[in-house]
Amino acid sequence: MNWIHENHPELDELYHQIYSKKSREYWSELDIKLRKYAEKNHMPYVRDDDSKMSDFGEPPIMANYFYHEEVKKSAKKK
């Protein structure tokens, strides 16, 4: 948080909401934007899941790993 404050003070409030207040609003909004992008570009979309693969010649699967808490938990399982 100190590094953010010193180098990108414009992000102070966002990081405070995400990490101190545990707000998931930013991640939820990002998820919506990514889903829309994937749909517009005819790409399958998954969250925190690398078990799926596209067949050769098919659109790539767009995977969202931005939900920090979910990624941390899944990493501990392996």
Note the main attributes of this structure.
78 residues; mainly alpha; two-stranded parallel ribbon; 2 strands; 8% strand
Describe the structure.
- The protein contains four helices and two strands; from the N terminus they run αααββα.
- It has 78 residues and is mainly α.
- Strands 1-2 form a two-stranded parallel sheet.
- The two termini are 29 Å apart.
- The relative contact order is 0.12.
Write down how many β-strands occur, each being a DSSP E stretch of 2 or more residues.
2
Question: Unreliable runs, pLDDT <50, ≥5 residues?
Answer: none
Q: Any idea what the shape is? A: elongated
Could you state the order of secondary-structure elements as H and E?
Answer: HHHEEH
Query: Separation of termini?
Result: 29 Å
Beta-strand share of residues: 5-15%
What is the number of helices?
A: 4
Q: Taking strands numbered 1, 2, ... along the chain, how are they ordered across the largest sheet?
A: 1-2
Query: What is the arithmetic mean of pLDDT?
Result: 84
Please give the oligomerization state of what you see: single chain
Rounded to an integer, what's the Rg over CA atoms?
16 Å
Content-based structural category: mainly alpha
The biggest sheet, with number of strands, parallel, antiparallel or mixed sense and barrel status, is:
2 strands, parallel
Q: Which bin fits the share of residues in helices?
A: 40-55%
